[in-house]
Every structure is written in C-alpha cells, then in structure tokens.
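Lab notebook, bench 4. The sequencing result for the construct came back, and we need a structural model before the next group meeting so we can plan mutations. Quick request posted to the team channel:

Model the 3D structure of this chain.
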Amino acid sequence: MQNYFDFKSQNTNYKTEILAGITTFLATMYIIVVNPAILTNSGMPFSGLLTATVLVSAFSSIAMGIYAKNPIVIAPGMGINAFFTYSVVLGMGVKWEVALGTVFWSGVIFLLLSVFNIRVKILQAIPRQLRFAIAAGIGLFITFIGFENAKFIVANPATLVGIAKLNSITVTFLVGLIVTAILVIKRIKGALIAGIVFTTLIAIPIGRLYGDASAINFGTSTLVTWRGLFALPDFSLILKLDFVNSIQLALFPVIFAFLFTDMFDSISTFIGVAEAADLIDETGEPRRVKESLIADAFSTTISGLLGSSSGTAYIESAAGVEEGGRTGLTAVVAGLLFLPFMFFSPLLSVVPAIATAPALILVGVFMMKPVVKINWNQLDDAIPAFFGMILIPLTYSITQGIIWGFISWTIIKLALGKKEEVSWMLIVIDILAIAAILI
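Done. Here's the predicted structure in token form:
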C-alpha cells in the first residue's frame, strides 16, 4: 500500500493519512443528514435518501482514492441538491424518478467528457491568475460557511449579514476556535480532530446547565443531543430512476444545468485544493486531474442510480489536506468511515455544527495562501481575479464566482487587444456560462 500510494515521494505515512481521512470525514459528515433533509422535500423517503447519501459518498470517495490517488472526498453536492428539489421537482413539476434520471444522464455525459479529456482541456483553459483567485475564493467561502454554521454570522435585514450577540453558543464556539487555532499553530498532529472533539465536549452543557439552542435555530434546546445508536438502512431508492422519460427534449436544460454546475464545482475544487496544498504535477496542472475528473463523473452517474442528486468534489477535503493528507489513502479512509453510518446514523447528532465550524474556518486560512500569487499590479489580471474570488462567498456559489471570473477576464482581455490570453476553449466556456445563467 505504501508503494501504491507512493508515500515516500509524498513524504507521508499511515498515521498521517488516517488522521487526515478522519478529519475530512468529520468535516463532511454533515452531508449524511443534510442531503436527505433537503431532498426529502421532493417526495423521496428520508431513510432511503440517507442510505443513498452514505453509499454515494463512500463509493465515490473510495474510487477517488484508489483510482485517482488524490485526498479529495466526493459526496452529494450542496446547492445541486437544492436545485434538484426546489427548481426541478417542485418548481418545474418533474417527478423525482425522472429528476434522478436527468442526474444519471448528466453523469454519463460528464463521464464521456472526462474520458475523452475534454474536461481536462476545459481546466487547462482557465488562466492561472483565475486559478489562484478560485482557491482563495473557496477559502473565503468555506470560512463563511464555518461562521454561519456556528451562528456567529447571522442574517440581518438592514445589512444582509451581521454578527450575532454573544451567548452560550457563540462563546462556546469562540473558545473552540481559539483552542483549535492554537493547536494548529503549534502544528500538533490531529489538531483539527482534537478541536472538533474539544468543542463537542464543551458544548454538552448547553441546554442542560445553561443556554437554549432552540432559541438560535439549532432545532433542540440541547446542542449535543443523543438520538440513539442504531438504525436499519433503507435501500428503497436504488434503481428507482426513470431512464426513458428523463431524456425528453424538454428536460435537456435540466441535464445541462446539472452537468454545468457539477463540472465547475468539481473543477474549481480540484484547482483550489491543489493550489493551496501544492498538489501540482510537473506541468503545473492539478495532480492526476483526468483520473480525478473521471472519479467525479462516476459519482454523478451512480448518484442517479442509487437515489440522490449529483455527487461532487468537496471543498472540505482541504481539512484533511491541512492535517497532512497527501495521497488517495486519505479519501479511502474518509469513504470507509461513511459506511457504518448506514446503521449508526443517529451517532452523527452527537457532533454539533459549532464543533466542525472552527476546522472549516481554519481551513479557509490555509486556502488563502495562493492569493499572494495574483499579480495585483497588473490590473487586467487583478480585476477579473478579484471578481472571481469575492463573488464565490458573496453569491454563496463556487459556480457563480468562477463564471463571472471567466466572463470578466474574456471581456477585459479582448477589449485591451490581448487575444493571445483568451483561448478558444475559454470562449466556449463563456458561452456555456451565459447559457447556464439564462436557464
């Protein structure tokens, strides 16, 4: 196994990779409950969705680790699941079986684009200045998610967002954040895991000795809640997709929307994690990118078969990379850790959102490193890069950030007569991006 994952050249070992896998799992395990909670509004059973989410996350991540040998977890994507539920099923009145079929067909197209290197060419068409910006933008985004999960940043009708008042939850979160930050600064192995465990433990008294989590939209009065140990898996959604009716002409825009969103979520994640962690090959491209994109396309395809919205690469994978994960063993460990939760899903309720929030925020710090590589003195580089970086967190969408970064880069470069900096593939991407906006 050491030779297969090439531990020597990556300067890693079993302990580091396993700790990194555990860290990545802890940062992404929320999807086991959150994905079913969103998709169940489409009419699918929650228990079946939970099983499908676990299977997609496990198989996809293991495939990424073994085939692509990269430390990146793949699971059903946030945002894509909301589009599936609220836009396609509820908004367009498409039956969920048919919607699952559109996910499957988008995965098939995705797989063909990956096998024939078209997706690699798309990635190579992205200017390096925009790659640095995307990595930094994802860092800002994941930090924002962390603060939001902890209810430290909240909605404010006057200013859109604002800082919450200090209470038992925000103070507990801040203590966890400071302790985790100190552990990270001291470069203690397993710092993020230790921070998650520590924050979970100090959150136990909330709702029991003081405070009330239900008053701050956490659902129950206690923040750390025991909901049992065992639950049987439900395989009722497997192969329930409608293959035939999902490829009718009227649904082509839906297939394209799934394809486009998944493509640029995954590409931007590979770029962001690779640039931040220096997982770059000798040509300057993300390591084993073709294999990684094939693994991602495989995930989308099996998502439709197993009963979930599209799988995609997760930005939270950066948490494991920060812990030292450098090889596919990190993704394999994370993937394997999903499987027991087909039976022990209630255990996930023990770890509250404020416990994983410090890890996400500190990963955001780690992912900001490429921002210094942006040529801020060259404004025709800096302005599109800034648009791409800042719009990721402000629109709450990686896809929107990268779209407007592309479009602004193309317009500015062509207006200045720098046609050599705009490839034909980038122009094709711009056309597809505009089409995606108009759908």
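Strands lie at 74-76, 153-156, 160-163, 311-313.
Will bring this to the meeting.
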